[in-house]
Amino acid sequence: MASSILPFTLPSLSSFNPSQRPNLFHLRSAVSQSQNFGLKASRLLRQDDKCLSVMASGNLSYAVTQEHVLNWVKQDNRRMLHVVYRVGDLDRTIRFYAECLGMKVLRRRDMPEQRYTNVFLGYGQEHAHFVIELTYNYGIDSYGIGNGFGHFGLAVDDVSRTVDIVRVKGGKITREPGPIRGRSSVSALIEDPDGYTFELLERPPSPEPLCKVMLRVGDLNRSIKFYEKACGMELLYMRDNPESKSTVAMMGYGPEDKNTVLELTYNYGVTEYDIGDAYAQIAIGTNDVYRTAEAIKLAGGKVTREPGPVPGINTKITACIDPDGWKTVFVDNVEFLRDCSNL
Ligand SMILES: C[C@@H](O)C(=O)SC[C@H](NC(=O)CC[C@H](N)C(=O)O)C(=O)NCC(=O)O
Ligand SMILES: [Zn+2]
Hints:
The protein is of the alpha+beta class and 343 residues long. The protein folds into two domains: 5-64, no CATH class; 79-342, Roll (2,3-Dihydroxybiphenyl 1,2-Dioxygenase, domain 1), CATH 3.10.180.10. It is built from nine helices and 17 strands. The protein has a nine-stranded mixed beta sheet, covered by helices on one side. It has an eight-stranded mixed beta sheet with strand order 3-4-5-2-14-17-16-15. The protein is globular, with a radius of gyration of 21 Å. The protein starts with a strand and ends with a helix. Bound molecules: the ligand C[C@@H](O)C(=O)SC[C@H](NC(=O)CC[C@H](N)C(=O)O)C(=O)NCC(=O)O and zinc ion (ZN).
């Protein structure tokens, strides 16, 4: 049976009549008020029928807080900035990406005190394009990729030609070029020197050749809710693939023909994965890391790094993990632009 696009069936974020809302108050005072009541706001928000249950308990202010936070997240200036992962030999990876995949080095950041180096690579400048941020930790030459990480999607104009180059350069081809299930377009899978998979997708020239990050998750609806509510992403579409016994949800901050997207894959019956220690995170721009962290907590998400400057860089970030343990970092938009223009 061919794959099919599923309708959106998730519950709406708010289920009470907006005309009943009292005046909105500032998010931070709302959060501290929720703490004064001796209740964890995040606990309340984990329920699908949260607003109604909050109203039933007579605590309308919680519902207003949640509404206010979710509205702010939706209006925030968000974009997927880069994907971060660890490699054992920077020069080896840079050479492979440049020679086989045509990427350019955009920026390098040496952090001797913190004992790591970052190299940014991609197809366009960082202020406007999604790029790769490689991390090399001094003295560590290999990592475990696990079985939860899927692949990075890369749009190329000729998959077979790219595969030939990868082969000539000694790269590994894990799926030869061929049509994608039920469609006419061609794809292939290759592995980089550290074992990260790239899915090559034959597409006309695209504004974002680095077009997706695919991660496996144990409960698709739970993950969709997390990325919608805690991260403010949109569910672009879902597709069920009965032949491969899997369903994917495409999520992001805009349509996939113009924006890099997060592809979440659920394999029927598989509820847990080893997420390894090689893949690190996706970084997302925000206008306010403090509000972002508050919003994540109010949505029931787990903040793993409280908002504040990164040691040695001074750019403000905050970080959270999703229900499967995948990390997302939010980066202050203004400071990010300063970093990537001060090469
Ligand atoms: C500003 C933001 O976009 C960054 O990239 S900060 C860089 C920082 N990277 C590291 O700390 C790499 C070394 C570390 N030992 C590792 O292997 O990950 C980073 O991404 N920080 C995010 C965080 O949550 O600390
Ligand atoms: Zn980063």
